[in-house]
Every structure is written in structure tokens, then in C-alpha cells.
Amino acid sequence: MGLLGRKYVMEIVCIVGVHGTVRFGEIESHLPGASTSTLSTRLEELVDAGLVERERYAEIPPRVEYELSADGEELATRLEPVVEWVAEREEMST
Amino acid sequence: MGLLGRKYVMEIVCIVGVHGTVRFGEIESHLPGASTSTLSTRLEELVDAGLVERERYAEIPPRVEYELSADGEELATRLEPVVEWVAEREEMST
DNA sequence: CGGTATCCAAAGTGATACTG
DNA sequence: CAGTATCACTTTGGATACCG
């Protein structure tokens, strides 16, 4: 899946995975570099790919929550060691 | 590292990891989608990041071999489950 | 063979406006 | 709040050709 190579995808999967269920704004706050529109697009792609599920609540104010699907969880599990190592390695060089 | 999110990076790491030492052309043949220039750029970035090492031989015809550094090996190990799972999942849907 | 140089298309960004 | 839409702009990536 070329989707994995797209910007922010791994990060999003991890963020959602860690939180369990997350709202749009929260994901956004963890990705300062990503624009609203890009994040929106990525999330849609992830939902289409069956890795993330979106739950929309008809409330005021509106609330939308994202969480990983079973496949998403599986991916997150496998992704964890990678992201962890990368994070550690980044600290070293700073 | 945002580098991981760049196109082909994970694939390249895996390809180099599997082969041990690889020549430019061989990597290219495993990535039909990537253009020469992109591959060249990616390899340079990977070398700069200390994940891949380049060995240039002053022969005719010229030969250049790439192989993973210790860090690259570590990354490849952690990346393996991810790539494996993604590959299986792709097969399912085809 | 293994690239770099060049030029062009596509993806992503930022800001802002608008909707349910 | 959680987006979608738009537009101008920057960054990436692709195609091709040429060089050592």
C-alpha cells in the first residue's frame, strides 16, 4: 500500500491507536505541521482503506470520533517498534 | 523522522536489507514505479541519514554498491512485520 | 553503469470562507 | 466543532536526456 508512504499516515495511525478514540481537533493538535485540509484528506483515505472508523454524533456542537478498525490495530501494533525506534533516534541527534 | 514517510523509503530499506549489498540498477528494477532521479535522491537522503552506506568502485564500467548500516539493519528489522503485513493485505484485495 | 541536470506534473500547505 | 471548498504558492516526484 502506497498509502503508508504518504505524509502523516503512520503518525495518524499511532495517534489514533494511542488514544483509542480521538476527535479531529486532537489529532490536529498532535500534528502541528499538517494543514486542516491535508489531515481531512488523510483521514478519509484511511477510512476508505478500512484502517480507521469514523463515528459522527449529531450533537451541538458536533462531535466526530475516530478509532482504529481491527486492521488498523494490527497495523499499529506492527508499526509501534518502528516509530519508537525512530523517535529515540531523533532525540539522539538533537 | 519524516524521511520514513517519503515515497519508497521503506521499500528501499527492505530491498537493500534483503540483498545485503545491492547495485543501483538492481534496486531500480525492484521499484518499477520510481524514477531514476527520485531513487537517486532517496538513496542520498538515506546515506545522509546514516541508514545506508555507499561504496563506489573506480572500475569500468562503474559500479556502486549500497548496503545497510547498523542503524539501517535495526530499522529494517522493525520494518519487516509492517511491510509483510501490508503485502499480505494487498494480496487479499486484489 | 550510475548517476546529475532539467523541466514539468502532482501532492501538500496556508489562509480564509462557509456549512451543519 | 468538524469539517469541505477554493486558490495561490511551495515542495515532491516523474520523465527524459545527457555526462563521467
Can you give a write-up of this model?
- The structure is a homodimer of 94-residue chains.
- Chain A is of the alpha+beta class.
- Chain A has four helices and three strands.
- Chain A has helices spanning 9-19, 24-30, 36-48, 70-93; strands at residues 21-23, 52-57, 63-68.
- The first copy, chain A, has a three-stranded antiparallel beta sheet with strand order 1-3-2.
- In chain A, a hairpin with a 5-residue loop joins strand 2 (52-57) and strand 3.
- The longest helix of chain A has 24 residues, at 70-93.
- Chain A is globular and about 45 Å long.
- Chain A starts with 8 loop residues before the first helix and ends with a helix.
- At the A-B interface, helix 1 and helix 4 of A face helix 4 of B.
- The structure holds a DNA duplex (20 and 20 nucleotides).
Q: Secondary-structure blueprint of this entry?
A:
Two copies of one chain form a homodimer.
Chain A: H1 9-19, E1 21-23, H2 24-30, H3 36-48, E2 52-57, E3 63-68, H4 70-93
Antiparallel strand pairs in A: 1-3, 2-3
Helix pairs in contact in A: 1-4
The structure holds a DNA duplex (20 and 20 nucleotides).
